């Protein structure tokens, strides 16, 4: 072993144990978060609050998965909502037409989403920047149009009605509100944990390198196209999970789930919360849903209020909330060290 | 799917003329909106997500002016001039603050104004559907061309859009202002160093783009119903046009808009429920085979 190699081995070892430490920490945080969320029904009987958390789970999974593309890889997808809709519709259709147990439908939906995302992604990730954004948008609208025009199968503009059957499995009855709530929380936490692992893995750092300098990544021997396609499919899976939570919650699926505004909201949530921290999209989700709920209660012109709030973020803070807070702390720490 | 209807129409000259004119109308209105979008993108490098709102304001301004004065010419002028002023203010006060920022921040500012503008229209003009009505001057017998019915107003609409296309094309390539604008699109720093106020150019181009969208809205007002949020579908379609034609290309916007208009009018016969899907399918095909659009320059 040369001196150089020895030196490298020494620096690598702490890094590895550091990564393992961080993984344990992440799992611990996830467990605590789940425990807190799951025990919420013990303290409050408020159905509205539990509903709010379920909606946060659906949108949070979706928005965080979008951040894997936007924040980590620099792929601004305007059509990510298609996988949200696809998840909701596939799950609903499988449950209605085949009547299989819920976990089977869950896995089947993920498989279908992965297959479709692989085909669409293979076409999309060849394009860059604004063209990537537009081609994903076009696919989104294509799927939306298909849902609308294939009325005999999808229910057309009426949506998938008649309710989604929710048979009991392993003692879990999703028709029960509390069971549904805990299951949604579990899916959210598991999904977030899995995405966190992806973001912190060597693959996650490869994505950041592609975002910052795709040419350099390519020269270093990384197959940029394959990496982008992989993260496109992975993100689609988590978005579909969000869609399934939504379908279970409303017991149906509607064309709006696949409309481009869902993608727009996803981008918006990411901007609100911030894209450079892992939990930014989650913060954004809670913010947007809170904002939507409170503003619609007070005024019918919620577009103006929402618009002004967005302007405040875009022109005032110039970044998402969590990004702003993180920068502020970093700034303070630097100032403190300088003294 | 109704391919028989499509085939039947293609073999009848009357239906062919009717569908082609209605396709041209859709295409020409789309062109006016899309060319503003493509100009703003070409010069300012901003994707103006709020462009549909200018189309909407143009229509409402025209309707109000027509109701007040009863003059069609004044209505058109109000639609165009009003949105030009709006565009100038919007660019100078808000958009100019986010030029250096992330593209997503620019989108967010535009998105905010889409929400705000829709509500402003709802407050001023009310949420219900409005219609301006066809001006008396155009309430005459339609023309019959090869058995197809063509209202004279349609001819005016097509004529105005064609004049705009020609004036813009020649103006940008030949006139001094056009050359300065193209120079500013290419290298704003150098143009600014040569003593030209680039802020003024940016504001002017945005006002011009807003004006064209407003003119499209004003021209559409007699033949379409007016409603808050009417700009949205137009916006999405003109995005498709600019992407198909190539961002920043005027000729591309014209060809793209006409293609899309024809796809819409003939597609609605053959695939009544999947007309929108056809447009997106077309966009995917173009983007995949030529990512920069039909007339776009290779990525700089």
From TrEMBL, chain A:
This is Branched-chain amino acid ABC transporter permease. Keywords: Cell membrane, Membrane, Transmembrane, Transmembrane helix. InterPro entries: ABC_transp_permease, LivM-like. Its main location: membrane. It comes from Bradyrhizobium barranii subsp. barranii. CDD domains: TM_PBP1_LivM_like. Pfam families: BPD_transp_2. It is found in: Cell membrane. It is a multi-pass membrane protein. Signal peptide: none annotated. The keyword RNA-binding does not apply. One of its GO terms (cellular component) is plasma membrane. GO terms for molecular function: branched-chain amino acid transmembrane transporter activity. The chain crosses the membrane at residues 27-46, 52-70, 102-123, 130-153, 178-199, 229-254, 266-291, 298-317.
From TrEMBL, chain B:
GO terms for cellular component: plasma membrane. It is a multi-pass membrane protein. InterPro entries: ABC_transp_permease, BCAA_transport_permease. It is found in: Cell membrane. It comes from the Bacteria. The chain crosses the membrane at residues 24-44, 49-66, 72-91, 103-125, 153-173, 194-219, 239-262, 269-288. GO terms for molecular function: transmembrane transporter activity. Pfam families: BPD_transp_2. GO terms for biological process: amino acid transport. Keywords: Amino-acid transport, Cell membrane, Membrane, Transmembrane, Transmembrane helix, Transport. Belongs to the binding-protein-dependent transport system permease family. LivHM subfamily. This is Branched-chain amino acid ABC transporter permease. It comes from Bradyrhizobium barranii subsp. barranii.
